[in-house]
Fold this sequence. Notes:
The structure holds two protein chains of two kinds. Chain A has five helices and twelve strands. Chain A is of the alpha/beta class.
Amino acid sequence: MPWTREQMAARAAEELEDGFYVNLGIGIPTLVANYIPADKDVTLQSENGMLGMGPFPTEAEVDPDLINAGKQTITQIKRSSYFSSADSFAMIRGGHIDLSILGAMEVAENGDIANWMIPGKMVKGMGGAMDLVAGVKRVVVVMDHTNKAGEPKLLKRCTLPLTGTGVVDRIVTNLGVLDVVEGGLKIVECAPEVREADIRAATEAAIV
Amino acid sequence: MVNKVYASAAEALDGLLVDGMTVMAGGFGLCGIPELCIAAMHDKGVRDLTVISNNCGVDDFGLGILLQARQIKKMVSSYVGENKEFERQYLNGELDLEFNPQGTLAERIRAGGAGIPGFYTKTGVGTLVAEGKEHKDFDGETYILERGLTADLAIVKAWKGDTDGNLVFRKTARNFNPEMATAARVTVVEVEELVEVGELDPDGIHTPGIFVHRIVQGAHEKRIEKRTLRED
């Protein structure tokens, strides 16, 4: 059985280590916050200017001055701190963030990632994604293994405009977990009842 | 005594607006945007603007109202989703757009305000962002040259300010505002609460008054773009 979105988020949460400062992207990565193990002390960074992000607010707690990078209302916790965008990206670009978990449209066998633009179709922008993949110590991508047509999204080379080159360390998909290693991708885990052969069949990238 | 205090955003912008000018506007999404100055710019009808701002508001609020009125010629931004009018104007070739990675945008503004004409960054190497830019290797890694950014005018939103222009921001409404306050020839700030000099703790001031030329107090709508609640 391939993993659901929630199960992918739970699996990605296993990448968190005690004491980590972590930035979570929009989509499934945001759900990772729901699965932080109780014995691990993790501080979430939001690139719009906050360290120590709390849960979504109750109606009474809603504050228009307090949002996450996905523009959703959030709350502060005891350890929270606020800072400017330049300071925020000094943390990111300067290598002070331990882990970035983000989504992708395509990942290539050399660790290239594309997640910000579909030419002629989607005009949204890269936001902080290029800075995150360039600066954060470890980059874990959470994504579906194939697109809606069943075509691979783990490719020999990305076809879409890149977000970064050679930056991805690990990929968590609905089928399993793969690492970017010398010569291609290495299967490190399969979802329940998914065989390595299933992953190979759904992957264009070289599997070593 | 120089007076920095103005009675309204419209008065604070008097004599500063010129067609074709470059304006920095603070905010992230709709959080911490200078909504009073934006509304005043809309009313005054200044046109052909180049606007440097992380986002471009929503269709009927924030910078979106300047888009609707066709007052913006070019945007320099990192993310412009959630704005249909923006997408329409851009795909029709009516609007010029320069995408910057968010951290590069913030640092370009910081550098511009600090008198630094350019800096090298790893962000964007090997992507469309790097095209046409100088590449240079440092310690075995490749970086690209990004230029500092300045503007004719910065419009900034702070929480509290004093009559000298010292500013305090609140929570994530800070975002691009402090850097933008440093990077323009003239900086106009709107605050929720204006106090007398001496009332703010000097150790708690985020932006010193030297960067602020005009300040105005007003009532802010502070619209929420994505109200997200937890279920208890």
